[in-house]
Amino acid sequence: MKTIAVLTSGGDAPGMNAAIRAVVRTGLEKGFKVMGVQRGYSGLINGEIFEMGRYSVADIIQRGGTILRTARSEEFKTEAGRIKAVNILKAFGIDGLVVIGGDGSFKGARELSKMGINTIGLPGTIDNDLAYTDYTIGFDTALNTVLDAINKLRDTSSSHERVSIVEVMGRNCGDIALFAGIAGGAESVIIPEKEFDVNLLCRKVLEGKNRGKLHNLIILSEGVGGAQALKKKIQEVTGIETRATVLGHIQRGGSPTAADRILASRLGARAVELLEQGKSSRVVGVRGNEVVDFEIEEALAMESKFNEELYNIANILSY
């Protein structure tokens, strides 16, 4: 193997640049020629590929987003699109490819592997929804972005004695909401993994008011959705002024935390080591602070285990 490439795919996540940096510099250290693919699988199909050197990744570890850009590609989902991608890789003499993204990106890497391209996946998504790894690149930064917003909303919520609903991202995984709820001292955390009763929620709000609480903070995962509808229901039942804030894509931006930079650096270096060993169709992650790797098929088949302990702690500490 002489030439490897790296791309970012799907939604962007803070720490992707740190991962790109690690792949490029580790690859160069091991004697590889390293290429960058712009705009994910879409750019791959269009041949948007350039050579990267040490200077290409200078001064990027602290930057959010991805210097390689990212995009979604419907064409790549077709057999004809994947054949075109493989032909492009061969035209550039690329033997190995590091794909930074989520489960959809990994499925693409798996298909390329079946077609003879050595592929390694890195978990780049704020959602923390990949079961094979404890944490994904970008999760910690997104969590801290949410926490900062909660701290600010708490000030104004207390001043006006309101209920504040904060809707956070995460798709069908409630980790951002759960972790932010504990760290932000929320009174209620609503996540896809657990059913909730809106009437019990309203009762909890009223009980809090009767105990002298000046405000009530509710963290709602987008996987449950309906922040505005929930706001309307709480206000109707309790008579307490209620506001809903949807944080949206602000959670994907910003300078990555130290935890995300270190995680991305460790995983990026391991990805290159696996390519050096001739490995393919594998994903890299972290478990118990140890870097691990699995077959893509095995990793995607793993079922997420909901953290009941954290959920129970969130409920206990909310009173």
Proportion of helical residues:
40-55%
Output the strand order for the largest sheet: 3-2-1-4-5-10-11
Radius of gyration: 22 Å
Count of discrete domains: 2
**How big a fraction of the residues is strand?**
15-25%
Total count of helical runs of at least 4 residues: 11
CATH topology of the largest domain: Rossmann fold
Order of SSEs: EHEHEHEHEHEHEHEHEHEEHH
Oligomer: single chain
Q: What is the level-2 CATH architecture name of the largest domain?
A: 3-Layer(aba) Sandwich
Structural category is alpha/beta
Please state the overall shape, judged from the principal axes of the Cα atoms: elongated
Structural notes for this entry:
- The termini are far apart.
- The protein is built from 11 helices and 11 strands.
- Helix 1 (16-29) packs parallel to helix 9 (258-276), helix 5 (139-160) crosses helix 6 (175-183) and helix 7 (198-210) crosses helix 8 (227-238).
- Strand 10 (282-287) and strand 11 (290-295) form a beta hairpin.
- It has 2 domains: 3-138 and 256-301, Rossmann fold, CATH 3.40.50.450; 141-252, 3-Layer(aba) Sandwich (Rossmann fold), CATH 3.40.50.460.
- It has a 7-stranded mixed beta sheet, sandwiched between helices.
- It is an alpha/beta fold and 319 residues long.
- Homotetramer.
- ATP binds at residues 11, 72-73, 102-105.
Key words describing this protein structure:
Rossmann fold; single chain; 2 domains; 11 helices; 7-stranded mixed beta sheet; alpha/beta; 4-stranded parallel beta sheet; 319 residues
